[in-house]
Amino acid sequence: MSGLDIAHPMATPSGRGGIWFPRGHILHDYLESRVMPVITGPVGRGNLQYTAMWKAAQRFTTRPVKFGAVSAEIVAFALQDRHYKSVPERMFAIADAFNEEYHELADAGCPVIQIEEPQIHLIAVRKIQDKVITPQLMVEVFNRTVKGLRAKTEVWAHSCWGNPSQQRMFAQVQSYKPALETYNTVDADVITFESSSSGGMDLEAIGKTITGKKIAIGVIDHHTLQVESPDEVAAQIRAALRFIPPERLVISSDCGMGREGMSRRHAFYKMVSLVLGTNTVRKELGLPEAQCLAADERYSLVVPAK
Q: What is the pTM of this model?
């Protein structure tokens, strides 16, 4: 991006968005390696090339490819700043640059753009008492980032609890409940929630609070290499359907499978179980089932005896 000094990067500062794990902790190792450029002038989109990256991926498949990218506030927290006079000013500048880039991406035909991720729930659970950094500011930054996009593409707001290197960022499983009313005000078509790794503890609250948007729930746990069975996935979906109508329910994974600890093979078969478990519930509801080539007997190397 323009306005950044890439020749003299600096480590992400401690504090807001910075390192808070002690030396010797796996997550200190992970976060300490974040060496970022410094803001030295007005931030612009520069040479992000989001559209080129999406096109490169989309031409490998006939299936629609979703594009996801970091939120403006996460970038703002990670960069040291020698230009802007306040954190909100810095966030808005980054949001405006991203918005311009996303409009080019949507105009190129990208069907889904996901923003990763509003810090709304993290501010709520950490009980941050700050007159500047508030959940309402995070909503304003998100909505500024996606301004005008929903007329062109589907916008997703991705939420998770971190999970780098398959590690929990909190000692206890956290709840989305304190942030749900605020999440209801983001300008998005779909909001994602981690659900599998928390045992679905927030499903009722999510269903009762988020009433005008689609809800994507995770039914795959990214913290374990154990592959969920299709029956386990189906049970989680049925639990969600008690509170979320099927026309607004999207089935997804929790966040974090792509980070270091999980092999592509584990991730692949977790996705296979996601599809097979979803098909079980679709069949119960009389809905069309999705194709799952990995479970198609035509491609099995072991042919059952006649």
A: 0.92
